[in-house]
Amino acid sequence: MMKRTILSAAAGIAMFATGANAATTLEAVKAKGFVQCGVSQGLPGFSNADDSGNWTGIDVDLCRAVAAAIFGDGSKVKFSPLSAKQRFTALGSGEIDILSRNTTWTMTRDTQLGLNFAGVNYYDGQGMMVPAGLGVKSAKELDGANICTNTGTTTELNITDYFRANNMSFNLVAFEKADEVVAAYDAGRCDVYTTDRSGLAAQRTKLTNPDAHVVLPEIISKEPLGPVVRQGDDQWFNIVRWTLNALINAEEMGITKANAKSRLAGTENPAIKRLLGGEGKFGEELGLSNDWALNAITAVGNYGESYEANVGPNTPLKLDRGVNALWNKGGILYAAPIR
Amino acid sequence: MLIKWVIVLTSKQLTKISKSNLLNDENARGIIFQALLLCAIGVGLYWLIDNTVTNLDNQGKSLGFDFLSSTAGFQISQTFGTWLLDYEVGQSTYWDVYLIGIANTFLVAILGIIAATVIGFTMGIMRLSNNIIFKSFATTYIEVLRNVPILLQLFFWYFAVLRAMPGKREKFELIPDVAGLNITGLYLPAPVPENGFGVVFLALLFSAMLVFFLRLWANRKQEQTGQFIPIFWLSAAIFILIPTVAYFVMGSPLSWEFPEFKDTGPMLRRGYQPGLGMLVVPEMLAVWFALSLYTAAFIAEIVRAGILAVSKGQTEAASALGLRPNFTLRLVVIPQALRVIIPPLTSQYLNITKNSSLAVAIAYPELVSVFAGTALNQVGKEIEMIFMMMMVYLTFSLLTAAFMNWYNSKVKLVER
């Protein structure tokens, strides 16, 4: 009976020990010592692990930049591969701190899911890929096709809208993991594979015969892809947003991974000094050290370097900057100034 | 914090004060400690709910079921559910999506239960036979299929078999011009009931009842007089003739819609034409095969255990009476073995229902895939939707268990 007292009292206490304390994300991350980053389960160019478990990609680089901005070290990140189905619940429940998983910014996701989009790191659009042997030259000829896609994505909605708008019928086969979609498309289960164009380029490298497939010219939706954080934590939101802005501004000012430190030492340009921490207290306003942007840029390079290394024309994905070029170079990438 | 201290102090003080009087009184002790435990549970529950609501508030989300009436903007694979509920993109609501998920899960669970029982019983009895070939086949089947995880078996049936199928624009004809198979599914003729088919259906039910009562009468006659009345051919005749007569009297009110295969024309339009005949998508077939075969291995072992549990004396006495092995098994051994078989069999049936949720891995739109996958990502109300899904599985499982328990009490050994 003594045991029962102690046990029941202990049960009551244990429920409190887990305590509902409202630590901000930045405090929790600093206490942990790393950033928990939600990424995809393997999308070359965006977030992909190689045989030894090293993650590369532009989404991965963004997480490393955030970690570098906080800790000064871009390797203080742990990656959680998530499927399209799990990603929002993982973020909302606190399992990850930031979701950097080629996620499209839509109004529903921004307002109804309790999440905030901290910016856009890749402007994309949805496209379709068909086997070349089908002889199809345009998406408008796809009446009656079987279409493979990923479940839980905007892709499903967009393709339904497109076919309804054009009065065409189709059959949708929706899988949970991108690998399953590719395997089914490759086996011939469906005629069309649809996802963001960058995804098409990436997954094409996994097909048995990449050249036997052709990407159709139509872009049927706007897909601004960017990092996501939870609502209710403005400081963390600012950190992620301004890290991305810092990387884009760095490219605008010609600051690279290699020359960041030397540019800071040898410049009189106030804009560069503000960005890299030589002037002003911008880092402290965010809750970080003043060389937050310098650390981020030194860890992953500027936006252009990250792009070239992961999805650029010299990579297997062969994606041009196109719309993702800087605003003064023909694209729409425009970051707010750091001042 | 305060409440925590109150609990600790109260229990400490109670133990101090009541050392002499209250602790010695069993009733008082019981009441006090149960009250404390209830308190702790109540406080714990309150904290849990409060925490959930606060966190939801912080994120700007709210609890509510009104999303069920908004329209769903996505397409769902052609399956039993979409046919049953006439799914229209842009007009059907999330509630329809929920019902479609339930219908598809229900279909694959029922089909799986029937197939697994049949295959399981066969394999279990085969393993006990004296024939070396049957025995080793059954043993291999059971050992292999029990030990490979079901998800892998599901992938095997889907991807390995899928790749072996002819492409969309070819076919493998099971029955020429009637039923065919290719990578997009199994095409069967669809029955189209016209006016008057209801009468044929009623005639079918009527003849089934007639056969049932005939059997009851024949059994009672045998119990009373010992005379065995062979009713098999009579029942077969009744079951076939009466509906057939009704069918022709009503003017053949059933036409068949055959699937049509087109070999010419624009590439995308070649192959089996959509909308004609009945299409069983390969995802459904893969889930059905994987679930049935996997669970059949477990059921086979349960059946074997049940049969071995019947004492050997029963078999020996039956053969001493001159009963052939076939009759021995059917009339003496299995009715007694059923008492041992039914409780674990219930668990396996429940497993089939729950394992059907793995179908999300191969794009079969059952409840988890379509509601917790697609719909959840569009709507975002995790707690409500997962709760709704849990209720479905719970209800279905409880109904299955209740039915099996009723059947169990019917075949139970009644001691005198």
CATH architecture of the domain at 125-222 in chain A: 3-Layer(aba) Sandwich
Overall pLDDT of chain A: 88
The order of strands across the largest sheet of chain B is 1-2-3-8
Uncertain residue segments of chain A: none
Number of domains of chain B: 3
Strand content of chain A: 15-25%
Name the helix and strand elements of chain B from N-terminus to C-terminus, one letter apiece: HHHHHHEEEEHHEEEEHHHHH
Low-confidence stretches of chain B: none
Shape annotation of chain A: globular
The name of the CATH topology of the largest domain in chain B is MetI-like fold
Any idea of the CATH class of the domain at 125-222 in chain A?
A: Alpha Beta
> Percentage of helical residues of chain A?
25-40%
Name the quaternary structure.
heterodimer
CATH superfamily of the largest domain in chain B: MetI-like
Which structural category fits the helices and strands of chain B?
alpha+beta
Verbal overview:
The complex is a heterodimer of chains A (339) and B (416). Chain A has 339 residues and is α/β, with parallel strands linked by helices. Chain A has a domain at 125-222: D-Maltodextrin-Binding Protein, domain 2 (3-Layer(aba) Sandwich). Chain A contains 14 helices and twelve strands. In chain A, the strands form two sheets. In chain A, strands 1, 4, 5, 6, 7, 8, 9, 10, 11 and 12 form a ten-stranded mixed sheet that branches. Chain A has a two-stranded antiparallel ribbon with strand order 2-3. In chain A, α3 (58-71) crosses α9 (234-252) and α9 (234-252) packs across α13 (292-300). The radius of gyration of chain A is 22 Å and the shape is globular. The model of chain A has no long low-confidence stretch (mean pLDDT 88). By secondary structure, chain B is an alpha+beta fold. Chain B has three domains: 2-58; 80-185 and 277-411, MetI-like (MetI-like fold, Orthogonal Bundle), CATH 1.10.3720; 190-257, no CATH class. Helix content of chain B is 67%, strand content 6%. Chain B is built from 13 helices and eight strands. Chain B has a four-stranded antiparallel sheet with strand order 1-2-3-8. In chain B, strands 4-5 form a two-stranded antiparallel sheet. The longest helix of chain B is centred in the N-terminal third of the chain and has 34 residues, at 26-59. Chain B is globular, with a radius of gyration of 29 Å. The mean pLDDT of chain B is 86. Classes of the chains: A alpha/beta (339), B alpha+beta (416). At the A-B interface, α1, α4, α5, α6 and β9 of A face α1, α2, α6 and α12 of B.
